[in-house]
Q: What sequence folds into this?
């Protein structure tokens, strides 16, 4: 099968997200200029640099009460900071609950039954229950073609790791089993690892 996106795929559901998988989930916490905490998952997310450490996430839709974008991007534009929270398998239902399009003055931490803790390097809340969290300062927002496509880049200014997931000096993902986004309504979870040695190691 071959198709041009502008012509349509002719399938019951768009296969694009099922092709680019698995994708890590950036559970982005932010705070509005009025002090309202916000929390939302984004599956267009990744780390993009080591030195200094940097991450990105993309927002691809808008809300009626946030013209042209979503709460996360609007909040980050206003405050210049955000936090990336790691989603474990145990937090899958809370993550899903936080994905709803709540009014901008409602707090998703409370809606999802999560504990909000203050970050250390930025004025923003983080998810206390998350295995890890990355405190970030905005570096740039890039507007992409399309109605509401924006990519947010941030530099990591603080890193939280829960001690129970540190094993022999490594952050052991098998102990908390991070969630990954697949296509359609599907998710996966990381439970099995295997090593590969690079030819030049």
A:
């Amino acid at each position: 099968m071959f198709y041009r996106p502008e012509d349509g795929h002719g399938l019951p559901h768009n296969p694009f997200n099922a092709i680019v998988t698995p994708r890590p989930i950036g559970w982005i916490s932010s705070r509005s200029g009025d002090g309202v905490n916000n929390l939302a998952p984004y599956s267009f997310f990744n780390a993009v640099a080591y030195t200094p450490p940097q991450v990105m996430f993309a927002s691809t839709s808008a809300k009626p009460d946030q013209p042209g974008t979503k709460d996360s991007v609007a909040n980050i534009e206003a405050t210049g900071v955000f936090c990336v929270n790691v989603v474990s398998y145990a937090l899958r239902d809370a993550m899903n609950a936080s994905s709803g399009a709540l009014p901008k003055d409602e707090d998703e931490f409370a809606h999802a039954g999560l504990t909000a803790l203050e970050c250390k390097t930025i004025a923003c809340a983080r998810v206390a229950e998350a295995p890890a969290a990355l405190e970030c300062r905005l570096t740039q927002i890039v507007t992409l073609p399309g109605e509401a496509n924006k990519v947010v880049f941030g530099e990591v200014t603080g890193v939280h790791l829960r001690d129970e997931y540190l094993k022999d000096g490594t952050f052991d993902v098998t102990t908390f089993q991070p969630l990954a986004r697949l296509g359609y309504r599907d998710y996966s979870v990381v439970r099995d690892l295997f090593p590969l040695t690079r030819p030049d190691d």
Observations:
- DSSP finds four helices and 14 strands in the chain.
